[in-house]
Design goal:
The complex is a heterotrimer. Chain A is α/β, with parallel strands linked by helices. Chain A contains eleven helices and 22 strands. Chain A has a seven-stranded parallel beta sheet, sandwiched between helices. A five-stranded parallel beta sheet of chain A has the order 19-18-20-21-22. In chain A, strands 12-13-14 form a three-stranded antiparallel beta sheet. In chain C, the strands form three sheets. Chain C has a nine-stranded mixed beta sheet with strand order 11-10-9-12-8-1-6-7-13, sandwiched between helices. In chain C, strands 2-5 form a two-stranded antiparallel ribbon. Classes of the chains: A alpha/beta, B mainly alpha, C alpha/beta. Chains B and C meet through helix 9, helix 17 and helix 18 of B and helix 5 of C.
């Protein structure tokens, strides 16, 4: 594909310049001119009111590869399926139905056959299973070799991975070895009703825009999806399916990577910078004894407790917990600021957090101007309530999941 | 015979004097050069003002004593000429000095005032000593010497009057010299001519010996001050405060000589003028008595820094460099210097660097560059540039400085503001108040540019001031615009922190944008921006007329372009805090006060430390971006000083000061005094 | 030890904003930066060099302006910088990019460790690192949070995994994609910045690295961007109000669950 600007029709209105996400159109001498940044995405074609931009499709050099079936890689650790695999089976089911094809899981491990039941319950018609001690722990090479071998033999049309560290680690390698496209972190997957291609939609430019991506000529069409993006369907344990055993030829001696140890973190870490959830307390907590409220809420959320400079300066909280200009700079998914007025000192260290919740008894506190959700209230009553409610919610959903599996 | 003995003694004393002096001068000529020989007329003017008229001294009552001592000393030295010549050759009469009775009258008055002054000085130093004065042996010696010089002079002169009186000849020159006459009366009554002649001779010799001793003593003691201070007055910087006397262009230097050290890491890289300061220092301690860091219990002591730390190191290292014939120790490795020094302990000083070895790193960073030391110094010493020069070495050469400062630099590089707030949000404050953005104005150039500054653009507190200023400008119908995202940090804190590289990048980019729009007149609410744009950007091709918003708004009111509601507002007692960069750096003390006077029902109280003696909030000199761990917080101290006036509101003119003072109020239990910029109060009256 | 660090110049995505009126990206004047994860990779390389000695080459594929990013890495302390730039590379997806970089690394020759950041902030794919390793047939370890020990023929690293980390031993040469936990990238000293301005940056074209045009740029990219659009809703500030604290907490929890934050 390539983009062509019909200079005699171009009025130099600049609509394409504004619309181009890559900054690839310049206005030179009153007409639009493409520069090196162009990725032929076609955004400008749709933006042009004069229809002065054309997107030309290149003549097909080779026929598109073929494949059939929608596959989902079933990631397991220590004999338990990662929930993202079940979410993807649920989503894959819809895609398979739209295509009128089958849904299959690809499962690697050592003595993991029993997990197939759950795969069927979440919608799989088949499970390609390869077992052996070499697959006991995830490692890039044996997993890449195995999945590539299965793909080559059975040729799926679509293959989905959970965007976990492991999923992202080897999906990229598989795609290169097979020579096909891979779209990362998709937030929406659907089938184009005309071309039957998989439309893979994902955020780009730090989440500022969304891009829909196609892989028209290579198979399988591969995508990764982040955990919790797709909805997990209700399992149906009456469903069953076919287990296809695949023989592996991978020997332990050939693997150049060894896992020497796996260390599970225990207790609450204070690694503020990597935390996905942070609860911070400020001057409003009033004294060191009340910092417990912050820690409790952080604990209930599975997050880390932080503090503002005022709380640290007062000697209530140790310095390593300080968030802000002179403390740690953080960007968690959820930041809860309790009793923090929101001096720029503090805001500079956390204003890129995805969701900011502010609890403060002063409705004029500047923190509210950047908060996603603001609560005007007394933190001494609000925090314990919130902690209790979150605990209750988490227990309820854990129970629900236990029942499901 | 007497003449021969005197001549030998004089020659010996002169030789000792000259040797000691040339040695010190040789240390100074060996260090970095600097051109302070330009503009002789302006220099002379400064000399007359600060040296002859002792302008800085005249500001305090006890400074008057020094003026008496200074002029008394000059007359006493002049009187030595006839005194010595007539002592040796009684027949010779020195014209004018030996014959003019008025000269002797003035000399006697001054001598008496000197003695009086010295007595008060003794009382001040040894009985009711202010902290800034040290009870050193050197101080005692000089007092004793001066007293001895004057008294032996009076005794000699008295005997001479008595003698001439007794043999019936008038001594017309001494006619009005009432001290001589007074002593003559005492001698005349009991002694005959022979005794008087002998007495006179003995007193003459004692006096001469003291004078010669004095001569030898001066260049070997802190009293080099007597010789160095007048020169220091002449060679003082003529640049506006804050303009760098030690220009440094890291890029140009790197292309010239890649190994050249940035900033000053060793004493010989200071210029001769910077080190002349050490000799000019009279150890009066006004600098330390006004240094906010020192007063807040930090170790930094500007007086000790010059008069001991630097001077002692210069004497020790200068001597060793002279001994080994070294022009500099820069470029010599530690091993080479070790080899040179061998086992000689004294030569080990060659290896010493300034920061870390002779000057504590912590003290270097305690300075807020508030310039109170410099602006009060009677001998025109330049403290702040030395601090900045050493910071340059630490930051640019050694890359060794506080991590929080590093973050601020990094933020300025990537987001163009030290907080690291999103660059694209720079104009967000202006949206609601409708301040137009320069770029969107296109060709239609506005008359004024409102420079919001980083704080005014990003800090929620300072944004209120920006909004107030914009509202006022709109109400007065001023045609103005802001730069918005095209504005970048002015670089003030980077420069004071010694990151001249970053400052120059920022200055060049800002000047390019401003000149690109043909900006001529700028209004700003930040004294730090004001200082850099007004006083420091001219060196980078940016010549603007920059006005602080308080002055601008005041003129709007005075010219009738802005009218305020004449009444309203509760009766309030306000105290006003002078920021360092608007006050001492820009000399603007009146406009903010006059503006506050426009507000009905507001009474203005003054803090004890105000105007040119104002006490820094603690945020200048890049301290805003650093933790303050030693001693008391400056902001807390300043708030206490403010609260001592029991105000209902505190007013300040600088976003840094307002932040610091608000923090100080919050830290003070039970205090609930709000801090305002004058513009905020004016905006309420629109 | 010979280390190659692959870096990418990216627009500072935190500064890319949506024009609320036109609903388009405001790109005008957005500063270009070195991808922050890649800066961490440079930091890791410099620390390795400090500990074990060696030579650090930074490599980037991009337009001529990407030289600025390389200068920044030189200022941090890298020994050498190479820019691969060619019109033929335009429009490359991760497959074509990793192929091109792999060709350049092959041309550089005997490399012990290839470092890259775990992902780029403008694309967030985390695919180029593993792609390079696959093209070169080398082992890889991604999400490296610590390099423990380096030996002649192998390396021991910590790799972040769900709920903890793994200690992994990999034969050398290998590719490591590092996480931010590897260490805060150093702020270039002024001396370093000035030095970097005087250092040469080598530029290689597709022909120089022996890249086949069929495999580079748009031609070599299986994926195509079909459409770009701005998401409808951005999160706005919202003050929650309710009759009681209890109801207020319920409301907040509801919001957080809806936003998948809990």
């Amino acid at each position: 594909m390539s983009i062509k600007i019909l200079t005699d029709l171009c009025t130099g209105c600049g609509a394409c310049v504004d619309r181009c996400p890559f900054g690839a159109v310049d206005l030179t001498g009153g007409v639009a001119v493409l520069n090196d940044n162009c990725t032929s995405c076609g955004a400008c074609v749709r933006a042009c009111p004069e229809k002065a931009i054309e997107q030309t499709k290149k003549a097909k050099k080779k026929p598109a590869a073929v494949g059939k079936g929608v596959w989902v890689f079933i990631e397991q650790r220590d004999g338990a399926i990662d929930p993202v695999a079940l979410e993807l089976l649920s989503e894959g089911r819809k895609l398979a139905d739209d295509l009128g094809s089958e849904l299959a899981g690809v499962l690697l491990g050592d003595g993991v056959e029993s997990l197939c039941t759950a795969c069927f319950a979440y919608g799989a018609d088949k499970v390609y299973l390869m077992e052996g001690p070499v697959f006991r722990y995830y490692r890039t090479d044996p997993y890449t070799d195995a999945v590539t071998a299965i793909i080559k033999e059975y040729q799926p049309e679509i293959l989905l991975f959970g965007a976990t560290n492991n999923g992202r680690d080897f999906a990229a390698r598989v795609a290169v070895r097979i020579v096909t496209g891979l779209t990362a972190d998709c937030t929406k997957l659907d089938i184009d009703p005309e071309t039957k291609l998989l439309r893979q939609t994902r955020p780009a430019f730090g989440g500022n825009v969304m891009a829909t991506i196609l892989c028209p000529r290579h198979r399988p069409q591969m995508a990764t999806v982040r955990p919790k993006v797709m909805k997990m369907a209700e399992p149906d344990y009456t469903r069953s399916g076919e287990i296809i055993r695949c023989a592996g030829e991978i020997r332990e001696e050939d693997v150049t990577t060894r896992i020497m140890d796996i260390v599970r973190s225990v207790g609450h870490s204070v690694n503020l910078q990597d935390a996905e959830i942070i609860v911070s307390g400020g001057r409003g907590i009033g004294g060191p004894e009340n910092y417990r409220l912050i820690e409790d809420l952080a604990g209930a959320l599975g997050g880390v407790a932080g503090a503002s400079r005022a709380a640290v300066d007062a000697g209530w909280v140790p310095q390593y917990r300080q968030v802000g200009q002179t403390g740690k700079t953080v960007a968690p998914k959820l930041y809860i600021a309790c009793g923090i007025s929101g001096a720029i000192q503090h805001l500079a260290g956390m204003n890129t957090s995805e969701i900011i919740v502010a609890v403060n008894n002063d409705p004029e506190a500047p923190i509210f101007s950047i908060a996603t959700y603001g609560l005007v209230g007394d933190l001494f009553t609000v925090l314990p309530l919130l902690t209790a409610k979150i605990k209750a919610y988490k227990e309820a959903s854990a129970d629900a999941r236990k029942e499901a599996v | 015979m007497q003449a021969a003995v005197f001549l030998v003694l004089l020659l010996a004393a002169l030789t000792a004097f000259v040797l000691a002096l040339t040695k010190k001068i040789s240390y100074l000529t060996a260090v970095a050069p600097e051109n302070r020989f330009d503009q002789p007329l302006r220099r002379l003017g400064h000399f007359v003002r600060t040296v002859l008229f002792q302008s800085k001294m005249a500001k305090e009552w006890y400074g008057i004593i020094h003026i008496f001592i200074f002029w008394g000393f000059i007359f006493i030295v002049l009187a030595e000429i006839p005194f010595i010549i007539e002592g040796l050759f009684p027949a010779v009469q020195v014209p004018f000095l030996g014959t003019n009775p008025y000269f002797y009258l003035v000399k006697d008055i001054l001598s008496l005032l000197v003695v009086l002054g010295l007595l008060i000085g003794i009382a001040r130093r040894w009985i009711v000593r202010p902290k800034r004065l040290y009870r050193s042996p050197e101080a005692a010696i000089i007092v004793a010497l001066i007293l001895a010089v004057i008294i032996t002079d009076w005794l000699t002169g008295g005997a001479k009057c008595a003698l001439t009186g007794s043999i019936g000849e008038a001594a017309p020159a001494y006619r009005l010299a009432f001290c001589y006459q007074g002593f003559a009366d005492i001698f005349y009554q009991n002694n005959g001519p022979e005794t008087l002649a002998a007495l006179m001779n003995v007193m003459w010799w004692i006096h001469v010996l003291i004078i010669l001793g004095f001569l030898v003593y001066i260049p070997n003691s802190k009293h080099m001050h007597l010789l160095a201070a007048p020169f220091n007055g002449y060679f003082a910087s003529l640049l506006p405060l804050g303009r760098q006397t030690a220009e440094l262009d890291p890029l140009a230097d790197a292309y010239k000589d890649a190994k050249k050290e940035y900033g000053v890491g060793r004493i010989e890289n200071f210029t001769w003028k910077q080190l002349l300061d050490c000799f000019a220092c009279g150890e009066c301690g006004r600098c330390m008595a006004n240094c906010p860091a020192n007063l807040a219990g930090k170790n930094l002591n500007p007086k000790h820094f010059l008069s001991h730390t630097l001077k002692d190191h210069l004497l020790a290292k200068g001597e060793q460099m002279r001994r080994f014939g070294l022009q500099t120790t820069e470029g010599l490795s530690a091993e080479e210097l070790d080899k040179l020094a061998g086992t000689d302990l004294e030569a080990a000083v060659l290896k010493e660097r300034l920061v870390g070895d002779v000057f504590r790193r912590e003290d270097l960073w305690a300075c807020t560059t508030c310039a109170s030391c410099q602006s009060i110094c009677p001998v025109s010493n330049e403290h702040v540039q030395k601090i900045i020069d050493m910071r340059r070495f630490e930051v640019m050469n050694e890359d060794d400085y506080a991590p929080e400062l590093r973050l601020a630099f990094r933020n300025v590089e990537s987001k163009f503001n030290p907080w690291g707030v999103s660059w694209s949000e720079r104009a967000a404050w202006a949206k609601d108040v409708g301040a137009p953005i320069r770029k969107e104005r296109g060709e239609a150039a506005p008359e004024y540019l409102l420079w919001a500054g980083c704080a005014g653009s990003f800090d929620n507190r300072a944004k209120k001031t920006s909004i107030a200023v914009a509202k006022i400008l709109r109400a007065a119908g001023i045609d103005f615009a802001i730069l918005g995202r095209e504005e970048k940090c002015c670089g003030d804190f980077a420069r004071r922190a010694g990151n001249e590289y970053l400052f120059r990048l920022l200055a060049a980019e800002n000047v390019k944008i401003l000149n690109g729009y043909g900006v001529k007149k700028i209004i700003t609410a930040c004294p730090h921006c004001l200082q850099t744009l007004q006083n420091e950007y001219p060196a980078f091709g940016g010549n603007f007329e920059v006005t602080h918003h308080t002055r601008f708004i005041l003129e709007l009111i005075r010219s009738g372009r802005l009218s305020l509601r004449g009444e309203g507002g509760p009766a309030r007692r306000a105290v006003y805090h002078d920021s360092c960069y608007l006050g001492r750096y820009q000399g603007e003390y009146e406009a903010p006060r006059a503006l506050l006077a426009q507000i009905p029902n507001l009474t203005l109280a003054e803090m004890e430390r105000c105007r040119d003696k104002s006490f820094c909030c603690g945020a200048g000199g890049a301290r805003m971006w650093m933790e303050e761990s030693v001693g008391m917080r400056l902001s807390n101290l300043r708030v206490e000083q403010a609260l001592a006036q029991s105000p209902e509101i505190i007013c300040a003119n600088c976003p840094y000061c307002i932040t610091m003072l608000e923090d100080g109020v919050k830290d003070k239990d039970g205090a609930n005094v709000p801090v305002f910029d004058p513009a905020e109060l004016i905006a309420e009256l629109l | 030890m010979r280390i190659v660090v692959c870096v990418k110049q990216v627009p500072d995505t935190t500064e890319v904003k949506i024009d609320p009126v036109k609903n388009t990206l405001i790109r005008d004047g957005v500063p270009s930066i070195v991808n922050p994860f890649d800066e961490c990779a440079v930091e890791a390389a410099l620390r390795l060099r400090e500990q074990y000695g060696g030579h650090v080459t930074v490599l980037t594929m991009g337009p001529p302006q990407a030289e600025t990013a390389l200068r920044k890495c030189l200022a941090m302390g890298a020994d050498e910088a190479i820019l691969i730039s060619d019109r033929a590379f335009a429009g490359a997806d991760t497959l074509a990019t990793s192929y091109t970089l792999a060709r350049a690394i092959t041309k550089i020759g005997a490399v012990d460790i290839i470092l890259c950041g775990k992902m780029a902030i403008d694309g967030d794919t985390a695919q180029v690192g593993p792609g390079i390793a696959e093209h070169l047939g080398l082992p890889q370890t991604t999400y490296v949070q610590k390099i423990r020990e380096v030996y002649d023929d192998h390396i021991v690293v910590e790799r972040a995994c769900e709920g903890g980390y793994e200690i992994i031993r990999t034969e050398l040469p290998a590719l490591l994609a590092v996480d931010k936990a590897i260490g805060e990238p150093r702020y270039p000293s002024v001396k370093g910045s000035v030095r970097a301005l005087a250092m040469p940056v080598r530029t290689w074209t597709a022909a120089d690295v022996g890249a086949e045009t069929e495999k580079t740029g748009l031609n070599g990219s299986p994926t195509q961007v079909m459409q770009i659009f701005t998401p409808e809703v951005a999160l706005q500030s919202e003050m929650l109000t309710a009759a009681s604290d209890d109801a207020l907490c319920d409301l907040l929890l509801e919001k957080l669950i809806a936003a998948k934050a809990v």
